[in-house]
Design brief:
It is a single chain. 32% of the residues lie in helices and 6% in strands. It is mostly helical. Among the domains are: 83 residues, Winged helix-like DNA-binding domain superfamily/Winged helix DNA-binding domain (Arc Repressor Mutant, subunit A), CATH 1.10.10.10; 67 residues, no CATH class; 30 residues, no CATH class. A two-stranded antiparallel ribbon has the order 1-2. A hairpin with an 8-residue loop joins strand 3 and strand 4. It is elongated and about 120 Å long. It starts with 40 loop residues before the first helix and ends with a helix.
Length: 313
């Protein structure tokens, strides 16, 4: 007798069969007991960072203190190129998940100090709660033998200070950075090409202002907003390259900050302007046969001296 093959669909385990959605992801969660890294949804679902930057941030947060996370250390570990890893590190710096500073050691050498933040904008919380002062002892009341219905004493409730020490305090929300400006009318291919050219030409003014392709695509709408408000390309280049710091660690972050903080106001609507150049009157020849002098006038006729003689006569 031939065996029959079952064609039943295997569904993910769930509490109620009706909870299974028709489409989309189905989570099968298993409780972890070791090798755990807690990641916030503000990082896992970040609306502006790339997928490479989010994955790199999760990898960095899972490493122990003292692990090397330089570009040369990460390139052998992942299949992404050195350019993509460097761009992802700049994204993490821009959004506050990573901070890299140059410090001088005791021997005179200069080293890079890297700090990783699992929640940007908030100070690090203590890993152990503060020890609360011991609560004063409570003497239970003595039961009355003559009244056996007396209820037993209730256990003492914990002190408010101890309860606050056990429960972790929720840190305050990090201050949100202002979003880069965007043009009111984005459908303008000429303006988009001009904005891309401005960001690309920044390295001509200073070699440190070398922006990657992803940074240029992200900052192009902000430059379009400047052009839409009447700013000239030369003025935008001057505003973005003036008074640069001596140590420029994050060129894309500096350009994004200047495009946001120094956004010029829109020009007011003005009436029709007078022409910049007013042409002179054409040359005319005096109609007096004895004169024949050339003079400028909008209409032909006599010159000034002949008109004066005619008026005197």
């Amino acid at each position: 007798m031939d065996s029959q093959k079952s064609t039943a669909v295997v569904r993910a385990p769930g509490r109620n069969p009706g909870d299974t959605p028709r489409s989309g992801v189905i989570h099968v969660n298993v409780r972890h007991t070791r090798r755990i890294t807690v990641v916030g949804n503000h990082l896992a679902q970040h609306p502006e960072m790339s997928l490479v930057a989010i994955g790199l941030a999760v990898h960095i947060q899972s490493l122990p203190t003292g692990a090397l996370i330089g570009i040369r250390d990460l390139v052998p570990r992942f299949p992404e190129s050195e350019y993509r890893i460097a761009a992802a590190l700049r994204e993490l710096e821009l959004h506050g998940y990573l901070e890299r500073t140059r410090v001088r050691l005791a021997g005179g050498q200069v080293a890079t100090r890297t700090v990783s933040y699992n929640r940007p904008g908030c100070l690090a919380e203590a890993t152990e709660p503060e020890t609360a002062p011991p609560a004063p002892p409570v003497t239970p009341p003595t039961p009355n033998p003559s009244n056996p219905s007396t209820p037993p004493p209730a256990p003492p409730s914990p002190a408010p200070e101890a309860q606050d020490a056990r429960e972790p305090r929720e840190p305050q929300d990090a201050p949100q950075r202002p979003a880069p400006p965007r043009p009111v009318n984005p459908d303008n291919p000429w303006r988009r090409d001009a904005a891309t050219a401005i960001l690309t030409d920044l390295r001509r003014a200073d070699a440190r202002l070398l922006l990657g392709r992803q940074d240029i695509e992200r900052l192009t709408p902000a430059v379009e907003a400047w052009l839409e408000r009447g700013a000239r390309p030369a003025g935008i280049l001057a505003a973005l390259t003036a008074n640069l710091p001596p140590q420029l660690r994050n060129p894309a972050g500096l350009i994004a900050h200047r495009l946001t903080a120094q956004l010029p106001p829109a020009l007011p609507d003005e009436g029709p302007r007078a022409p910049a150049h007013v042409p002179p009157d054409p040359f005319q020849t005096c109609e007096d046969d004895a004169c024949g002098l050339a003079f400028r006038s909008p209409v032909p006729g006599l010159c000034g001296e002949c008109r004066a003689d005619t008026a005197a006569a």
